[in-house]
Model the fold of this input.
Amino acid sequence: MSEHAVVLMAYGSPERLEDVPAYYADIRGGRPIRPELMDDLVERYRRLGIDQGSPLNAITEETRAALEQELGLPVHTGMRHWQPRIAEAAERALADGATTVVGLVLAPHFSSMSIARYRALLEDALAGRAELRFVERWGEEPGFIALLSHRVTMLTRDHGGRHVVFTAHSLPERILAEGDPYKDELLRTAELVAAQAGVEEWSFSFQSESATGEPWLGPDILDHLAALREQGVRDVLVCPVGFVADHLEIKWDLDNEAQERAAELGITLERIEMPNADPEFVRTLAVIVRRALAVPSPV
Ligand code: FEC
Done:
């Protein structure tokens, strides 16, 4: 029994190819899916090798276990679009006797279309049965900035003139008119990492937009690489700031699609390793949780 618990939330990923239709239906929230888009998604997961397991789910479990050990508190995984669901994680925390639950999403930047949805799922599941301390954003967390800037430094210091492209998942452009802070928060993280890594040549682009028929935030990385090439850039380091783990959007959209486009353009493209379950990253997550619980971090 523990009065404090953490619900650690992530996007979630299908474990087998047969799960892809149900997973995609969950993402679409019941809205129809064109058959060619479903076929395309199944094919991407097949080429990702999902039948050997989903990297995202495995890394999330590794992170959960390490965070639990670091904090000495129960940490339960809740997936937004797969199992275990956020509601199951909330029930487990309550069954453990938690009266205060910290909600932490493995995505650093707030958006009404992202973090707010995780929050609503957790709030509904807890239904007032425990106090919720929800972490809405952590994109400026010093440990996170230090981890990314260290990785950027290691991959730029011997590469004079290397251009760093920071990336994050795109969202429909309409969020800007709604005053959503997502884009500003992403740019702030990029600025902080670039400053700490001493990088002067950098830019920001979005990735992984969906074919939903409305405009999404850009520039998309595939177009951005072409624009950079026109400016004479030949050597690019990609630093994703809106994701923290290896998953489809990294292993497919960057390591296959963007890599292929870069090769066509004659650009050398490398990316930093994702934080995944790196002990330094887990310590940063622990700092965030302890702050939410107002327990001082050990020095
Ligand atoms: O490895 C995996 O299996 C899962 C990878 C994955 C991550 C992820 C993160 C984010 N998404 C965000 C927003 C949207 C919006 C839509 C949307 C659609 C998809 C589809 C797949 C998918 N997302 Fe995702 N996202 C991941 C996977 N995402 C698969 C459906 C096929 C496709 O469009 O390619 C559009 C929904 C709609 O159609 O209505 C919007 C945001 C993030 C980053 C924050 C987070 O991790 O929660 C924002 C990982």
Summary: The mean pLDDT is 96. The chain is about 45% helix and 15% strand. The CA atoms of residues 110 and 136 lie 6 Å apart.
